[in-house]
């Protein structure tokens, strides 16, 4: 199912292709995104409004995959991050109330990639892993791409 988040990422991918060329993290997101339905309960308690860092910390500390994507809240797509447990079930790490959330869509990123990107000087709490990839040097990006292909 295509959501408003897909449309936003598609526009971003198109703009990236026009302005930067080369490997396009947003097109990669579109090609690899999956739908998730996070479970409530048993969640890691993260800082409010800090989902990217909460999911990154949980990913690195517990060796769990990080998911970089969108959640629709009252129909509005919001950039968001969460984790997957050992069985591949989503774990919501930030939102206190998920009753108004739907159409969770994101791309799974291994904790090793999260650790490399989250410790980079370009890491921003508001952009997560995908948004930080544009700050990596060509050598760093090549390392990330290799890690993504291996996982």
Q: Helical segment tally?
A: 6
Question: What ranges have pLDDT less than 50 throughout 5 or more consecutive residues?
Answer: none
Instruction: Sum up the overall morphology in one term.
Output: globular
For the CA atoms, what is the radius of gyration?
Answer: 15 Å
| Class by SSE composition | alpha+beta
Question: Helical content, roughly?
Answer: 40-55%
- The strand line-up of the biggest sheet is 1-5-2-3-4
Structural summary, described in words:
By secondary structure, this protein is α+β, with helices and mostly antiparallel strands. It is built from 6 helices and 5 strands; from the N terminus they run ααβαββββααα. It has one domain. The protein has helices spanning 4-19, 25-32, 51-62, 111-118, 128-132, 138-150; strands at 34-36, 66-73, 76-84, 90-91, 101-109. The chain has a 5-stranded antiparallel beta sheet. A hairpin with a 2-residue loop joins strand 2 and strand 3. Helix 1 packs antiparallel against helix 2 (25-32) and helix 3 (51-62) crosses helix 4. The model has no long low-confidence stretch (mean pLDDT 83).
Which helices and strands, and how do they pair?
Elements: H1 4-19, H2 25-32, E1 34-36, H3 51-62, E2 66-73, E3 76-84, E4 90-91, E5 101-109, H4 111-118, H5 128-132, H6 138-150
Antiparallel strand pairs: 1-5, 2-3, 2-5, 3-4
Helix pairs in contact: 1-2, 3-4
Brief descriptors of the model:
151 residues; alpha+beta; 5-stranded antiparallel beta sheet; 6 helices; 41% helix
